[in-house]
Amino acid sequence: MKDLLTELIVINPEISELPDVFQQKVLDLYFQGEICVLALKARELISFIESEAREEERLRFQKELFETFTTCDLKIRYDKNVESLKATGILQDNNLGIPSIYGEAYPVPSYENILGVLSRKREVLQEKLCQGFFRLQLIPIATSIQALKDVYAGLLLKHKQDNKLFQAIDGIRDIPIPLDLDVTKPVYVYDGFIYGEIGESLIYYPQRFDPDNHEGYTKRELIEQLNSSPFPGWNVILLEDNPFLTKENKGKTIAVRKQLENNKTPIDYLNLIQTQKPYHHEYGLTIEDWLTCAIQRLHERNEAINIYEEWNVPYLIGNYITEGFVPYGYWSRDGRRAGVGDADPGVRRADSGALSAVRIV
Fold this sequence. Notes:
Layout: H1 2-11, H2 20-31, H3 42-87, E1 97-99, E2 105-107, H4 111-120, H5 122-130, E3 133-139, H6 145-161, E4 166-167, E5 187-189, H7 191-199, E6 202-204, H8 219-226, E7 235-240, E8 253-254, E9 257-258, H9 266-275, E10 283-284, H10 287-301, E11 303-304, E12 313-315, E13 319-321, E14 326-332, E15 337-343, E16 352-354, E17 356-359
Parallel strand pairs: 4-11, 5-15, 12-16
Antiparallel strand pairs: 1-2, 3-7, 6-13, 7-17, 8-9, 10-17, 14-15
Helix pairs in contact: 3-4, 3-5, 3-10, 6-10
């Protein structure tokens, strides 16, 4: 080993100026095929070695985070999902399944299956966990939008009756903010989305917002695709732990990924997650994703999410209707209801942004 180091110093005398620990690292890198170390000056060598050390530290952190998540957090989050799905009535039969819009029944994914898929996709998911995608959500994608709308409406009425309906807060406040409710129509969903499910004009995971060339799936096609996946009838996703949108110019960069900020068009957001490397493996939320998240938040915390007046309205770019609209989810304090409205994909608003998810399939 010492003879080899002597030979390397003959090739690159700069190596002799390094501390012993760095000389050992040069040998390690040489054995790993990093021949470039033989052409670097001493200062460059130190910088190179330190960057390699930082990369090793990053990879070690990713590994430790993944182990913690899969051995501890995942089971807790899975159990909370199942409890919420049962308590709110989304899971209806004795087999803990959901009725499909087309008549089939799909049992809830098992914890063991989810853990298995996570383990097989470890390399991708380690990176996304470091970027903040911790929140497991089980989405009954095969059920109808109307069914989820009805569940949410019934839950809102119950919470209002019990005086347990408050605004979701980004942070901690001593006094919760109560919300009023239009008891005649607690949830609004644009009719085109509900009819589009059946008429197949509602598209899932479009590659572009183009009625003739969207390259997405109808609901029937998506369910058929999921039938050959580990989780038939379900979307299993990871979301950022913070469900609140990021105001324009306020985004933080976490593990090289900058948070999505408000005031871009749905077209911009779709292009961003499709083309920029830090957002790879991310998808826009669907209407079913948003309704399920809203139902669970209300059940667990007595809170309605995505307050319109707080500039916290997410475009749901996992859907597109061929009439030319993208959905968005919201709670309107003035309207006293939750809703899924329709937006022009080419329009930007300072009060609107996007949330993305990592699909576990």
